[in-house]
Design a protein that fits this description.
Shape: elongated
Number of domains: 3
Largest sheet: 5 strands, antiparallel
Helix content: 55-70%
CATH class of the largest domain: Mainly Alpha
Structural class: alpha+beta
């Protein structure tokens, strides 16, 4: 219906949904079994157990759908990629909701689990149950009890870890970049020689680079035991102008070659060395988000613009982190411009008359046509070649006037200028874009652009006041994506909070649930550190997706806590029992999701490179986020309870019981009053 194929992106979405489906299935299954244990018949237990948890499960699915629906509104290339992921996740969780509330209860109602017959215990199942009980009773519940007694200490530890993580990113321990470094199977070498260069010269320079590429291929391939060539093909192209050319180098698949495209690019660049006469030469093995560094300079004065361009290029070339510095000004063929002197005006000459005679002398003029047999021969008259190949010959050219002939040099000033092939404008001003690549892919591109923005560009602006500048390339794409994120993110959070408030009928509980989600960043950031990849915009989008999963877990936790309060449980007992009951489904959700993402984390295919930052964020963020749901959420529930107790005490002058100020108890009391 949506026109998608089954690929790495859609499979990634389904892996995420598996974790949510497991969690919801465990919640429904355990609640049905609890009703069955309380004496209800199997069919009634399936119906009542499902209806009881259906609001919280539906709300959890809704918050997840809102979180992933966010991707539909992201602009740029990033939005194009992840809108497909959003569709897969939203469609899958919608179907999973129907499965959990309709198909699962019907299967459980007729399953052996809801029969009184005694079954022989399965050894694997018995071992798994024992392991889960040990983890819950000997590891989780003692720690939960400790942090409940030391709430401030627990919050300080989590906050300190959050601050430490941001400090690690600021110090460069956890690297960051605009977009992830995607390993491609192709290298493009772009060459530009001076305008007017003949085609065979351009081809000879391309052959020099091609020979260097072949030598690199022989060295890398000789080290392989499988006999495969690291460089599969080399295509040489010239055009669209005769002075422009490129090499398209196709590499062995990334899974097989075991060498990065950046390493091969560096080796080819080093082997080719400096080539005399080349105006611009770049080796590209990057991603489709633009160059790491690209700045557009603009001015109304072309002279000032070119001077600023030269100064800026020189500054970038002096930065050791950058290479392949070039600009996009199209240089035309050299042109001769004539400016008439006063003597020419005295002879009643105008510029058109002079240039017409110069053209006739250089390019010739048709003077006669002769018939030779069946062929017509055209005779052109022009200066001898020796007079047409030097500036002196041009200056000596005779210009006819009514008063006789005069040398061109006496009648006009001769000036050489570069011709114009194309003119780039930005907001009505002439513009030139200067681009550069990074030498080492591990370099933090935001740090490089910050240095350029804060140090180099102010110096250029001071020397050339009429210059304006704007970042292009990855910085521009990143800014476009970030602007769309900030534009839609508030609406997403408001909608999520509205769903939570509608479910809990408590603004405080909704806020407690939302507060824990940013702390999942701790796991996401250190996960990037463990895998040695920089935190990018894709990683940040993974955090948005992660919020939906965590809210689903937390929502069921709070709903179960409220249900236990309504059953008359004391506050502390309700917290401990809820933690005990929710440990298994949250643990299983985390394990299944992490296990499902592990093959993707270890995958080296081209498609996987786009998803690895997202997968790292979800996998490691979910581990930390689930721990926070089991530890920090109970702490926050108790903190908000203490605030309510103290507020009620100050207003009424009487200290209430902790349970009586909880929204669930107030709602229960209101419902009872309505009945009476």
């Amino acid at each position: 219906v949506y026109g998608l194929s089954i690929n790495m992106l859609s499979l990634f979405g389904m892996i995420i949904v598996v974790g949510i489906l497991v969690d919801d299935g465990v919640v429904v299954g355990e609640n049905i079994y609890q009703h069955y244990e309380d004496g209800e018949p199997a069919l009634k237990a399936a119906i009542d157990g499902t209806i009881e948890v259906m609001p919280s499960i539906s709300a959890g699915i809704a918050t997840t759908a809102v979180a992933f629906g966010f991707f539909f509104f992201i602009e740029g290339i990033t939005g194009d990629y992840f809108s497909d992921l959003s569709f897969v996740v939203i469609a899958s969780i919608t179907i999973s909701l129907l499965e959990v509330i309709l198909l699962l209860p019907s299967r459980l109602a007729h399953s052996k689990a809801l029969q009184k017959k005694v079954h022989k215990p399965n050894k694997l199942l018995a071992f798994t149950n024992k392991l889960m009980l040990n983890l819950r009773d000997k590891l989780y519940l003692p720690h939960l009890g400790f942090f409940i007694k030391n709430k401030l200490f627990g919050l300080l530890i989590i906050t300190a870890a959050f601050i430490l993580t941001f400090s690690a990113m600021g110090a460069g321990l956890i690297r960051s970049t605009f977009f992830p470094d995607i390993e491609l199977d192709r290298i493009i070498v772009n060459l530009e020689l001076p305008t007017g260069t003949r085609e065979h010269v351009t081809d000879s320079v391309l052959r020099i680079i091609e020979a260097a590429t072949s030598e690199v291929n022989e060295e890398w391939s000789a080290e392989r035991i499988d006999g495969l060539q690291v460089i599969q093909t080399i295509e040489r192209e010239i055009g669209p102008m005769r002075n422009e050319g490129r090499l398209k180098i196709t590499l062995l698949d990334v899974e097989a070659r075991m060498i990065s495209a950046a390493e091969i690019t560096s080796a080819v660049r080093s082997r080719a060395g400096e080539i005399p006469g080349v105006e611009q030469l770049s080796y590209e093995a990057g991603i489709p988000f633009g160059k790491p560094v690209a700045v557009s300079l603009s001015s109304r004065d072309i002279g000032e613009l070119r001077a600023a361009r030269t100064d800026f290029r020189r500054a970038l070339e002096n930065m050791p982190e950058l290479t392949d510095v070039l600009d996009n000004e199209m240089r035309g063929q050299p042109e001769i411009h004539l400016k008439l002197k006063d003597d020419a005006h005295k002879l009643n000459l105008n510029l058109q008359q002079v240039t017409s005679q110069v053209r006739s002398g250089f390019f010739g003029r048709e003077v006669q046509r002769l018939q030779r047999g069946l062929d017509e021969v055209i005779i052109w008259l022009r200066y001898d070649e020796t007079e047409r190949t030097s500036l002196g010959g041009l200056e000596r050219m005779r210009i006819r006037t009514a008063d006789g002939e005069f040398p061109l040099g006496e009648l006009a000033e001769i000036e050489w200028r570069d011709g114009i092939t194309a003119i780039n404008h930005r907001d009505g001003r002439r513009a030139i874009t200067v681009e550069a690549d990074v030498v080492d892919r591990s370099v933090s591109i935001p740090d490089v652009t910050d240095y350029i923005r804060e140090t180099i560009l102010p110096q250029i602006k001071a020397r050339h006041p009429g210059i304006n500048y704007e970042f292009e390339g990855q910085a521009r794409e990143f800014g476009k994506t970030l602007d769309s994120i900030f534009a839609i993110l508030p609406a997403v959070f408001i909608l999520m909070i509205a769903i939570l408030v509608f479910t809990f009928r408590s603004f405080a509980q909704a806020i407690a649930l939302v507060v824990i989600t940013p702390f999942a960043f701790i796991g996401a950031a250190w996960g990037h550190f463990l895998h040695g990849i920089p935190f990018s915009i894709f990683s940040g989008l993974g955090l948005i997706a992660l919020i939906g999963i965590l809210l689903n877990d937390g929502l069921v936790f709070v709903n179960a806590f409220n249900a236990k309060l309504k059953l008359g449980k004391p506050l502390m007992a309700a917290i401990m029992e809820t933690g005990s009951d929710r440990f298994r489904p949250i643990f299983l959700t985390t394990i299944t999701t992490f296990a499902g993402l592990t093959p993707l984390l270890l995958n080296q295919s081209l498609q996987a490179q786009f998803l690895i930052p997202l997968a790292v964020t979800v996998a490691y963020g979910l581990v930390v986020g689930s721990t926070l749901t089991l530890i920090m959420l109970p702490i926050l529930i108790l903190v908000f309870n203490s605030i309510r107790v103290w507020a009620s005490w100050l207003i009424t002058g009487k200290k209430p019981e902790p349970e009586s100020v909880e929204p669930a108890i107030k709602e229960q009391k209101y419902e009872l009053d309505e009945k009476h």
